[in-house]
Amino acid sequence: MSETRKVRGAVVGLSQRGSLARAKPMAEGPNTTLVAVCDIIEQAARSVGEELDVPWYTDYEEMLEQGDIEMVFIATPDADHAPQSVAALESGIHVLVEKPMAISLDGVRAMLAAADRSGCKLGVDQVLRTNPRFVQAKRMADTGYLGEIFYCEADYVHNISHLIVGGWRGEERHRHTPFIGGGCHMIDLLRWCVGEVAEIFAYGSRKCIDPEDYPFPDCSVSVLKFDNGACGKFGVTYGCQRPSFRNFMLYGTEATYLSGREADRVRINDNQSDVITLDIPVQGHPYGPVIRDFAQAIIDDTEPPISGRDVANTIAVAIAGDESLASGQPVTPERFEF
Questions:
Q1: Are 188 and 155 in contact (CB under 8 A)?
Q2: pTM for the predicted model, two decimal places
Q3: Whole-number Å distance between alpha carbons of 292 and 308
Q4: Residue pLDDT, tens place only, 145-166
Q5: Domain check: are 190 and 295 in the same one?
Q6: How far apart are CA 187 and CA 99, in angstroms?
Q7: Judging by DSSP bridges, how do beta strands 7-12 and 71-74 pair with one another?
Q8: Pair 26, 168 in one domain
Q9: Are residues 33 and 160 in the same domain?
């Protein structure tokens, strides 16, 4: 890693997960320096800008005209991701966008086209790919330690009804469906570890959140068929009465990786004595590594490790899940090459 080169970055959207959650790692990163922040809420923009001693804005377009910004981390509400990414890319600025990458395939295509035209890099903050627990799962899958993966499970269990009711996630225009909004985390991990999804068949229910507050099913479960012949199950609930957790299991012919709320384990067979407990910290959203790795791709002029063209297929699966819910039929997701 270069000791002198630092990418000049900005952050737009400061109210999600704390006003400093993304701005501070950008300011303190080994290869980044924060040069601007923006939020439509003046108090949020002002307080972060003054604390980190950088210019602050309430107008995104105005911030992009600052002149010295090389990359922008877009962490605004979901419907704004695609248009704001396109605007930055067309201004010659590299884009790291919060998940979900976009809420429609048209948005995905527009972002990819803008990145191709501009020559700028497009990365996506599918942050769980940097969580140590899932990095270990990926390593075991890739090295063959688990054998051939034939079945997988993932669940996004998170009661976010307090964020939905009265918030932007409850607005239809943002399409923060269980598949696109939160479920894209686990869909992305399944793709990352198992392979591309060939087909998805989904069911859903709306029992937990008043339909007047949330126009989508608040729970969904789906069956997945992968290109390599593996199958899987994926579920999401937004209104459950229990602590949040992200269930993730990879069933291989040689071993099974189990990641739950308490600890990660590898099962060799049905005997309790053959359980290997992995001492891996439970880290939810480590933004620093994502920012660092994206900035390094800019410095080295390489493809971002979590690229827009890769994550486009995650969004395609999520959108196909919503289409299956609506039609009651299995759906083949659109496929993007990367």
A1: no
A2: 0.92
A3: 16
A4: 999 999 999 999 988 888 888 8
A5: no
A6: 12
A7: parallel
A8: no
A9: no
The tokens for 218 are: 């608040």
- Tell me how far CA of residue 310 lies from CA of 37, 177, 229, 305, 306, in angstroms: 27, 21, 20, 9, 7
pLDDT at 265: 65
The amino acid sitting at 245 is: F
The structure tokens 């377009």 sit at 61
Tally of structural domains, the chain: 2
| Interval 219-278: pLDDT, tens | 999 999 999 999 999 999 998 888 888 889 999 999 999 887 655 566 666 555 666 666
Enclosing H/E stretch for 155: strand 149-157
Encoding tokens for residue 68?
Answer: 């010295």
Q: What is the residue range of 21's domain?
A: 7-127+286-302
Letter for the amino acid at 260?
Answer: G
CB burial of residue 105 (10 Å; 0-12, 13-18, 19+): middle
